[in-house]
Amino acid sequence: MKIKLVSCTAVLTALLGNFVYGAFGTGGLQPAWADVPSGGSAPAPASGDLAAPQLAPCISWRNPNVQSKYAMLCIHGLGLYSKSYQTFGQIMSRTGGIIYAIDVRGFGSWVNAQGHENLDFNGCLADIESALKEIHTSHPGLPVFLLGESMGGAVALRAASTYPELIDGVISAVPAGERFKQKRTDLKVALDVLSGAHKTRSGIGKQVVEQAATDKQAGKVNEQLAAAWQDDPLDRLDLSAKDLMQFQSFMNDNHDAVKKLTVPVLFLQGLDDDLVRPDGTWDLMKEVGVHDRTLVALPARHLMLEESQTQNPAERRAAWHSVLAWVLSHLPDHAVADVPAVRTIAPQAARKITQGLPTVLVFYAKWCDQCDKIAGFVNRAQKQNAKQVRFVKYDVDDPRNQALLKELSIGAIPELIFLKPDGTISSSLMGQTATLVIMNNIADMLKH
Hints:
Elements: E1 4-7, H1 10-16, H2 29-32, E2 58-61, E3 70-75, H3 86-93, E4 97-102, H4 121-138, E5 144-149, H5 151-162, E6 169-173, H6 182-194, H7 204-212, E7 214-215, E8 220-221, H8 223-231, H9 241-252, H10 254-257, E9 265-270, H11 278-287, E10 293-298, H12 313-329, H13 347-354, E11 359-364, H14 369-384, E12 390-395, H15 402-408, E13 415-419, E14 425-430, H16 435-447
Parallel strand pairs: 1-10, 3-4, 3-5, 5-6, 6-9, 9-10, 11-12
Antiparallel strand pairs: 2-4, 7-8, 11-13, 13-14
Helix pairs in contact: 1-16, 6-9
């Protein structure tokens, strides 16, 4: 088995208004969605019915001026959330990628979801499956890749071994569980368990940040990276001993998971990583049970893809180029049109929803920050264009909306479904996205 090692219209005018991507939210969803009519009108389910399923918060990046060549779902590292891929997503979208990133359960918007605040890897794997299925529905002809870094790299490997039919390749950056100073961390966790403090928050998260942000050559911490990691309220660092035990167990189990891989895999490892031992990633790669496996060693620190706006420019370009070169080498020889699969709503229900107007269905959750980020745009668009375009909201946690969620196979939130006046689906958008992308989809809907 060979191992490769590489070093190195008027409606649209009104919609535009003063909207700037990322400048919407009001700090709370309920006021932001107040003027958008709700679509939930079915009777509540009988006592004992299943509770509404949770859907992962998501962000997406797509450049409408570039032909789409592939789709990619990104999984973040410990303590971070989907926004950590902002710069990476914007850059990769310029290369023809449609990039998605979701929050791992226990991080990001999940910390505001009552009853779902805790670290949950099994739930995360189910979220990845749902998101991947939705990506295939929205872009049925495009190759789909799964990418993760650090903890996300380990999660991506596990998901790839579990749902190989849903991806064309996996990219895993620094996924190993073997870490520098691991004995010190393990001792702290053990002492917390013995003292009965395993459910309380520890200070280990800050220690992880300091190690991950350390510049070995400069001999100091990258303060910009550390601040980006610690100052965002959705970055969760107050991990309990129980969380860390679950995390380490999951990381260790990946040695068995990689043996089941049947899709191409790219490993990335920073040679100046002060958190994950490079030989741990090498050992994982050697255990992969597929011929098409590549390890790229880069002169970089722990994080190479996330929070890359804080990284050394040469290091981040090397990481981006490595990912892009590998992805392009695994694309089909012929160009594939990005044409959404046909999705339908029952005609009677569709006519009731649209009332004869082009309609945008908005699926959201009150606790989802990514949903909050598009609420201002949707609210203003509803006010300014009530006679031309309808906007109808659906709370995904409302049991009355579950039949429609299932019918449309909603994979993550927020999600926008664009309906023609007759109720047929024009297009869909999964995840918080740029205003211009939403406007382009509205324009396409109005052409029909």
